Structures are given as structure tokens and as C-alpha cells.
Amino acid sequence: MQASTETQVQPPYLLFLGDVTDITDAKTAAGIKQWRGELCGGQLRLPGGTVDLGLPDLTLTQAVERGIKTMIIGIANDGGFIAENWIASIIGALEAGLDVASGLHERLGDVPAIAAAAKRTGRQLIEVRQPENIFKPGSGKKRSGKRLLTVGTDCAVGKKYTALAIEKELRKRGVKADFRATGQTGIFISGRGVAIDSVVADFISGAAEWLSPENTPDHWDVVEGQGSLFHPSYAGVTLGLVHGTQPDAMVVCHDARRSTLMGDYDFPIPNFHTCIDTYVAAARLTNPRARVVGISLNTSHLKDDREARQLLEVTARETSLPCCDPIRFGVGEIVDNLLRQT
């Protein structure tokens, strides 16, 4: 068995950006700012850091004076480690009276100087990636309520943003819906979830069942996907989510810039028909009625909205499914199709 995570991160937040120079390395902070901007009071950057989220640059003293409660490590670097040059700022935050929250693989409490500072100051170190309660292996038993899972042609293609946009659109229409987070940024955004990549493989499907439990027949759990069935490193976590979520509906997410898999790989991304068929076949083990209801396309590389709309239209014709860019144009057409079919 393995434990689950429920977080209690007190806002307002100070987003720690360190010295990163690429927004992709600050995706945790960027996601929090995008979806919970009202909780963000400022950002803290180290010398050399060029990523700017448009928040006030604050010192630790200024952050406390403005009522900020928690400094969140907003960086998701390769390997998920705590860089040596961050430690002074983390200790400084604790000494200033802030809690510090992190979604990195390396635990804050495993750095002796940080652990000692937390003990000395009585402040919290919040590790959202570390499980606490108990999971069981997946049962495969049918549960009441409805579930949508975002899935990907590759990693980091917009599964979280798509799920959040769908939850927002459903709620706007008066439909009961909850975003279910499966990664560090999603947990910070929603305040609840499971960092699936920290769950032992045997318990991933059980964690997904816990995350999306029985509910009323008219309620949608919108579950954030992870990885991709087509990625040699991360297909396992994806399959566990597919089986445990038992999705009634899936949305396939894709970054339109990519033709090969992210990382040091020379694997081509399969076409949409292959992706759709593979995800549906996998999902029907635990839900024989599982289907794909739309395509979410990241068109951020296109500067012109007309070009972006043309690409969405081409993809919609190719797949016979509604195709949306959730950030640029919203997910209304996907939600229309979802509600028509349920």
C-alpha cells in the first residue's frame, strides 16, 4: 500500500523563481500564476534569473509586510533537485516567518540546513510530491459519477491546462465538476491531489480510484493526465491513470510544434487516429464505453490567430472531433460534444 497527499498551503504565495532563464523551468510557478493569480502576491528572483511572471519582485521582508504566508518553489528542473544557491533564500524565508512549499523530488527536509531552520523557526516544510495516506491496488470496480481524463501524444503538451479549462467551462454552464490534480503544479492550484509520479507502480491505478471516487450521476471529475502511452519513459504512469480513472471521456492533447517525442529520443509522434485508437483500447479494459470527445491543440507557436484557427479546423476535419486551443480560444466546442454524448 502507498500513501496519498492532501495539501494545506496557506495563501497568499510568494513564487520563488531562482535564477532560471527559461519559462519551461518555471512551469510550476507559471501554472499557479495562470490559474490562481489572485493568490499570488509576488515573485522572488535570484541574480541572473530572467523569467518574469509579471508579479511584483519582493524581498522576503517585503513579502512578510504584505501578508504573504507561503513561499512556493516554482521551479521544476530536470531531476527535481534543490540547487545549492537556493538554500539561503529558503532558510531566509523560514526565518522571516514564511512556510515553504515544494513539489520537487528532493525533499526540503532532506537538506540538513533547511530542516534545522524549520525546526528552529517552527515553520512548515510542505512537500506536495510526498504521499502520506494509504493507497490500495486498483480494483477495476465501476464507480458512480462521470470522469474525463486528459491524455497526450507526448509529455508536457497541455494536459493540465486542458483539464482546468474544461472544469472551468463545465462550472460556467452549471455542471458539477472538480479538477483532480495528479502533479505538483496541479496540487498547488487545487489544494488537493496525488503526485502520481511518486506512487509505487502497483498502486497507481488505486491512487487514481481514490482521486476520483464515487459521486452523483451528474458530477464530472476532470482528471489531469500524466505522461503518454507513446513515451518510452512514462507510458507506465499513463496506463495506470487510464485504468484507475475509468474515463467516460478522454481529450487527446498535442503540441502542434512537435513531430518527435520530447527529450533525447528519435521516436516519431503517432498520428491522431493511432493515438485515439490506442487510448480507447486501453481505457475500455475498465470502462467499455470510454471514448475520445475532442482534441486539445497547443498553437502557441503561431502568432496569427487566423493561422491557429486554420490548424484547428484542419485537425478537426482529420479526426472528426472538435479541436480547441484551451488558452487561446477556450474549450467550448469540446464541452459541447462532451455534454451531447452523455
UniProtKB/TrEMBL annotation:
Q: Give the D-glutamate N-acetyltransferase-like N-terminal domain ranges.
A: 53-131
Output the superkingdom of the source species. Bacteria
Q: Where is the D-glutamate N-acetyltransferase-like C-terminal domain?
A: 138-335
Q: Which InterPro entries would you find in this protein's record? A: DgcN-like, DgcN-like_C, DgcN-like_N, P-loop_NTPase
According to UniProt, the name of this protein is N-acetyltransferase DgcN
Q: Which organism is it from?
A: Steroidobacter flavus
